[in-house]
Design a protein that fits this description.
This is NmrA-like domain-containing protein. The protein is 36% helix and 14% strand. It has 144 residues and is α/β, with parallel strands linked by helices. The chain is globular and about 45 Å long.
Length: 144
């Protein structure tokens, strides 16, 4: 069983997809308020929720420490949240969608093209500051 923390978009499709595809996963969802937590409970009653937002860094750090995997689909510009999640993350998986921010003529792979992706100049990557924070934390194990 994986223990997974999911900060971001908790009332969206991702928790429901996880519940359907991986019913054996234990997923904790970060919800901004009680109303959002109730929406998660209706869709995925076996997923516990934590009430907080992207500024609830202590909450995210403690939740992350107890997890095998973190999925982050929240605000791509929020450096404190990215730092809270990635700080001392070694031994866990961190899934963060590419924040390239520029339409490309090709599809880049998160494994085979990571060196090229991380070498793009800053002006071509509008979210490079957040990517940089993640890479600095554990650049050896980054797969965007």
């Amino acid at each position: 069983m994986y223990t997974c923390k999911y900060p971001g978009g908790g009332t969206g499709a991702t928790p429901n997809l996880l519940a359907t595809a991986h019913p054996d996963y234990e997923v904790t969802v970060l919800a901004r308020d009680q109303a959002k937590a109730a929406a998660v409970a209706r869709k995925c009653p076996h997923f516990p929720t934590l009430i907080g937002d992207l500024d609830s860094t202590a909450l995210m750090e403690s939740a992350r420490a107890a997890s095998d995997m973190v999925l982050r689909f929240a605000n791509a510009n929020h450096i404190p949240a990215a730092n809270a999640i990635t700080h001392n993350l070694r031994g866990s998986y961190f899934v963060d969608p590419s924040t390239l921010g520029k339409l490309q003529g090709r599809v880049y792979g998160g494994i085979e093209d990571v060196a090229e992706i991380t070498s793009f100049p800053g002006e071509e990557r509008i979210h490079r500051d957040v990517d940089g924070a993640v890479i600095e934390e554990d650049g050896e194990n980054v797969l965007e």
